[in-house]
Design a protein that fits this description.
With about 400 residues, the protein is mostly beta strands. A four-stranded antiparallel β-sheet has the order 5-6-7-8, with no helix packed on it.
Amino acid sequence: MSTAATRSEFPFLEDSGSFHRSSNPQLPSLTPFPTQEEPKVPAESPAGFAASRQPRFNDVQDDVGDDDRLSSSSSSSSSSRGRDGERGGRGRPPAPADPLLASLDLSPTPPAPGAAPTEQFQTEISAYVRLGGKLFLLSSGGGSTLQVTDASNPLAPGLLQRVSLGAYISQSVATYDDLVAVALSPNDYGTSAGKGLVRFYRIDRSGTLTLVKDVEVGYLPDGIAFSKDGKKLVIANEGEPIANYAIDRPGSIGIIDIKGRPGKETFSYTDLSFAGLTLPSGIRISGPAGTTQATDIEPEYVSILGNTAYVTLQENNGVAKVNLRTNTIEAIFALGSVDFSTQLVDISDRDGPPPRWQQHRNAPDQPCSRQQRGGLEDGGRHRRLQHQGQGLLHHRQ
């Protein structure tokens, strides 16, 4: 029982509307996409993981995790990838001409013929569970339901159920074995700025969810991730201000410790504040008078490597390093800036000469990581769930 499917069972996922299947019945084995060789960097360095700079509703990598599932990505296969070229080469089938798989529209209200799709908050973040020979997708997107899809047959995925979240909206979903965690915020957060919670479910072999427990966490929980052993869930509590800063809740990093066997679990919560921490130069703190680092720092997304969690501070140009043995914030790294006055780049969506950009701070969204021979590499190129709006899922090779 595992949530880590191989590429042949459940390859490249792309969250924009459909599952697609190639006419080629042979799907490639789980090997990294070809890239140029990269220098090794210390795991504790901010350069030791890749932080996505895409817009907030863009992409999320699933857990590619276990080393034994990545045994094919050895140094020898890495060097052969460089010689053999894109997706194929010695010992591997070539890339199919059409990598698109079957389609599944999860929109509660599909657009009228010829009309443009609208955002329906169904599939921004997805996770999966492999259980009893079946593969289930769990999708959330800032709406009031959690979608459960049976993707065991990638040629014919089907929606099993929409689970109501009551007076909450979902921010994220994560899985470990058959345990499902959903990050929820009150649907009136825009006025009340109330605390969020993580709702835990168990999923069975039919794809049915059973409520386990609600655990209160910080304000506006966003990205969540399980540790490799499933004994901790790390939460990025974003704590965004409501309109005009009428209320500005503190951002924090939450950790839920999970103990006991299935059915007998206990859940305990620890909240890590940014108040009083020494911040390096380059961390951006902004806002109206009275704003503090505790209220302005807004954690966004979590990636875990061993006993360390890396949490992006998207609005603040930084990353927090969290020790999961001691449940403490060990360090905060600033991510610097880019001087676009020396770059040939057009980052405007308007015609004509681009504006004169001077310095641009990085806004990290999603850090991607995977374990390989004790190092930390960009896991985003191995398998990734991507969001492109509306309520649609793409399953693609």
